[in-house]
Amino acid sequence: MSLKSIAFAAAASAGLLLSLPAAAQFAKPEDAIKYRQGALFVMGQHFSRLGAMANGRVPFDAKAAQQNADVVASLASLPWAGFGPGTDKGAPHKAKAGVWTEQVKFQEHADKLVAESAKLAAAAKTGNLDNLKAAFGPTANSCKACHDAYRDR
Ligand code: ASC
């Protein structure tokens, strides 16, 4: 295979992934539901560890903060593909119908988390607790705003 055709194949498969309906990336709706729940769960675990530092419940560890924030920022863009059409059923979950009826607003919440968690990771990289604290609140608010609007209690 020539370099050119490899590049073409790579671009084509990237384009295909982007253009496929999200549900089509999963074998079945249950997989999409588990995927988004898994990504959100792992993110929550690492975000809580940051919260413990930001709120003074555990001592600040700059390296751990950076690692946790990097995980959050890396995972922040993942869950949303798991909310594609047809993934409102197939396994137990707490997502409200608005996820599928207000896709633009839901996506805005997702984008907000991606943006805030990128700032959080940049803040953690400075190794300064005050920077971490300043970036933690807005990120937590983006979690909470979406949960309030789109997650059942
Ligand atoms: C967390 C976590 C969330 C958010 C949210 C912020 O640690 O798991 O969902 O923070 O509680 O308000």
SSE layout and pairing:
Layout: H1 3-19, H2 29-54, H3 62-75, H4 98-101, H5 103-125, H6 129-150
Could you explain how this protein is built, in words?
This protein has 153 residues and is mainly alpha-helical. The protein has helices spanning 3-19, 29-54, 62-75, 98-101, 103-125, 129-150. It has 6 helices and no strands. Helix 2 (29-54) packs antiparallel against helix 3 (62-75). It is elongated. It has one domain: Four Helix Bundle (Hemerythrin (Met), subunit A). It binds ascorbic acid. Ascorbic acid binds at residues 44, 47-48, 51, 140, 143-144, 147. Residues 44, 47-48, 51, 140, 143-144, 147 line the site of ascorbic acid (ASC).
Structural category: mainly alpha
Principal-axis shape equals elongated
What share of residues are in beta strands?
under 5%
- Assigned CATH class: Mainly Alpha
Number of strands: 0
Distance from N terminus to C terminus (CA atoms, Å) equals 53 Å
- How many domains make up the 3D coordinates? 1
Helix content: 55-70%
Name the bound molecules: ascorbic acid
The CATH superfamily is Cytochrome c/b562
Mean pLDDT comes to 90
Please tell me how large the radius of gyration is. 18 Å
Order of helices and strands: HHHHHH
Low-confidence stretches: 6-19
Number of helices: 6
Quote the CATH topology. Answer: Four Helix Bundle (Hemerythrin (Met), subunit A)
CATH architecture tag: Up-down Bundle
Describe the sheet with the most strands.
none
